[in-house]
Structure formats: structure tokens, C-alpha cells
Write a structure and sequence with these properties.
single chain; alpha+beta; 6-stranded antiparallel β-sheet; 4-stranded antiparallel β-sheet
Amino acid sequence: MASSLSIFLFINIIIVFSVFPALPHGVKLPFRPKDVLPLLPRHVSWPILNSLHSAVDLLPTFVGAASDFSSNQTLEWKGACFYNNTAWMEFHNKTGSEFGGGTLHIKVSNAHSWTCMDLYVFATPYRVTWDYYFLSREHTFDFKEWTGKAEFEYVKNKGVSIFLMHAGMLGTLQALWDVFPLFTNTGWGENSNLGFLEKHMGASFVQRPQPWVTNISVDDIHSGDFLAISKIRGRWGGFETLEKWVSGSYAGHTAVCLKDSEGKLWVGESGHENEKGEDIIAILPWEEWWDFELNKDDSNPQIALLPLHPEIRAKFNETAAWEYARSMDGKPYGYHNMIFSWIDTIDGNYPPPLDAHLVASVMTVWNQIQPAYAANMWNEALNIRLGSQNLSLPEVLVEIEKRGSSFDELLTIPEQDDWLYNDGKSTSCVAFILEMYKEAGLFDPIASSIQVTEFTIKDAYMLNFFENNSSRLPKWCNDEDNVKLPFCQIRGKYRMELPGYNSMEPYAHMNERCPSLPPKYFRPQNC
């Protein structure tokens, strides 16, 4: 009875505010329907919350930086709950330390209802913290003591960055509930990944006729043939979903085929997990690689074979390709430059509400939680771009400001294939393949003007290197499918799509200045 009454009341609330949307000016609603959703039975409230919030709502929006009040610069913005907000910094030295601390003042007013609240994240290069407000008044957040001169000077000159969680407290919790299944190895997780990609990329997942695994003849596979892989559940499925969203790639992992002098087929892969759980570059027998994908890979991978065009295959220097592959075998996966192939522009690669401020804050969080991981992921790459050595992330951010530049500009500096990191050259899964193509002569005569570490997976499968005549594809290619793809899908329940496949001729400085905003991922010529 109580549940029925709750449903009845909620339906009436919706009807009332739908029929009478225009209240007299200045009259505040006591609440909004979505503010009371969590009070209803879970089977009623959560499906509705699911339609209002998604995993993207976990991402905070940068509203500005609160500066020293004495500079007469007051930050103003509109919140999700409170529509009028101002903030400023006041420096103090309550502890008697060398550089003292400060108080962040935030004045909030004009709430849209009596039950809402705003959730904020506050960040400097040296710390990230948070607070929430549901009372209309001036609030304060105290930074008891700056970590040292660098943080003091940074805040004095640049202020404290303020991020708004647009979904609010309840929406953020719901968004957490939405993002959690992306990484779970369950049917729920798989459906969540598919739903995210359908909603945010416009992807489609049409079920293929069975069998979902192709009976392959390895005699029809040649050196240089490209393997595009899309994982849709589990840990890697979740990571790949987010990677696809920001880059526009419809595959999240890649590998390449190689045949030796005796005709034996091998697979080169950057990102193979060894016995120690490390992600490395490996050269594996085809049988071992294929058996893993069929029987042990719990991410439910969808896999396509992209055969090289005969003219490209004739150009492929197999000896040089093997020499490169063997020189990289056993080396670590290229984490150092992974994010830099995605970020090419100041503001054209960040799906809202992502931006460079948020990237810097995420880096700051990781720098505090796992400093070794952060150093591996981006610190060394940022130092190379600055021409500096061994600067920590906070020191990098301070140094950028001293030089009159900005963090978003630093991120757009193109990666160079010949940069050496502390563990050698850094190649992600797709950079490993394209560097092999480069060594094998496929980018000649402009190879010196191509930086393959700037390519995403989408950039790779768009190259016009692949077979364009379906009559030359192997007989077993898509044999049981009623839709004939221009490539060979060899595993997977859902038909793979690769927009822009095999359509772009290489050019100098390719993919160094390309935007990638969903859902259309428009790409200007010669970017």
C-alpha cells in the first residue's frame, strides 16, 4: 500500500508541475520532482534517475578560479542548485608558518528548490578536496596551511580551481552506480557498455547470425594484416568504452599479423599481459593468441581482420618489420604517451564537461594516490615537452605558468616517435603497429613527417592501406553473415562498424591537430 501511495504521489507531482509550469515570478518551488526521487521505492526511482543521469555526470565542470579578494576579482557563476554564486580567497597566517594558509569564501543564493544542494571540488596542483552546500548563505572552506612556497605563489597568482558536480550529490551517486557496471564482468556490465556507446557515440550493435566465430584458414592471412578488437565487458571493456568515447574510435585494442620465413603465423601485440600481470609488447604464435581470444578472454571481444591491399602488401618490407618487432619484444606497453594521441587541440578533444582543467585535477589526484603510476603515465612526457627533467606534476604546472604558457597548450604539443623514455621508446597498441608499418616502408616517402604516436585507433583503420575489393577477401570472410562488411569479422556477437574505414591517404604531420568531439567526431581536412 505504501509503495502504491508513493507512486501515486510522484505521478501527481509530475502532473502538477507539467500542467502548471509557470509560477508567479519570484515564487520558489518547495522541491523539484527529481529531488525526491531517491525517497521513492528503488524499483520506481532508479529507472527514472537512470534517464536523468549517466556516467558522464560524474565529470565535474570547471567554473573558474577564486582569486585573492584584495585583487578585486570575484568569481561568479550559476550552479546546479544555487543560481547565484560568488567566491574569493582570503589569505591568513593563523598557524604562524612561513607561508600561512587561506580561506575560500563561497556565497550561494537563489536555490531552485528547498531540497537541492550543490557539490564542489576544489583543487590546486598540490591537493584536491571537496565540500557541499544546501543553505543559502556565505560558506567558508579553510586551507589551514599551504604546502610550501610553490603552492602559496600558485594560489596567489592563479587562485583555487573550483569544479561543480552538475548532477549534485544524489545525481553523482546515481552516476557512480551507472559507471560501476562498465567495469564489471557481467551481462549487466556488457549492456551498460553498449548502452553508453549507443547514447554518447551513436554506435549501433546489431546481432550477427551464428556462428559468431569464423573458421579461419591461416594460409589467407599475411604479414601486416591488422587486427581491430573491441572489448565490451569487464575491466578492459570499461576502459575501452571511455577511450572510444573521447577518441571516436570504434575499436579499443589492436594487434598485427606476421609470418616468418617458414610460413608460420604470429601476432604482435602491445598490451599483452604476461605471467606477472605486466602489460608488455609480445610476439605470440597465432594458435596461442587465437586460443586466448576464443576461450580465455572474458571481455567478450569483437574482432575484425583488416587485410592489407595487394599493392600495400607488395610494398611491405617483411624483414624490416620482423627486425622492428623483435627489437620491441618484451618491452613495456606505451603508457607514457597514451593520452597524447587523443589530445591535439586546446578545446576540440574534450567531450563536455571534460577540459584541460579537469585533466590537470585528475592528474593531481593520481599524483597523490599513486605517484609512481602518475610518473609513468604523464610526468615524464610532460617534462619532455617542457624541456625539463624530473619535475613533479605540481612543479610542471608551476613552471608552465612561469613561462607564460598554459597546461592545455602543453598537452597539445605533438608526440615525437624518436622520444626516449626511461624504459625506451613508448608505443601503445596502435603505435606499435604503425611504427612497424613505418619501418616496413608503408609511409614512404613521407615517413619522416609522420609521428605515429599521434595516431588513435580510429586514425589507423582510416588509412587507405587495406583491401578495397571484396572479391579478393578470403572465402571464409563473413561467410555466414547476410551483410558483407569491407573487412573480415572473425569473432563477436555484434556486427562491428568502423566509420571512415580505409578512406584516408597519409599526409605530412597527419593527426597532429585533429579535434574529436562526439557524437559526430568531425575532422577537418589535413588536420
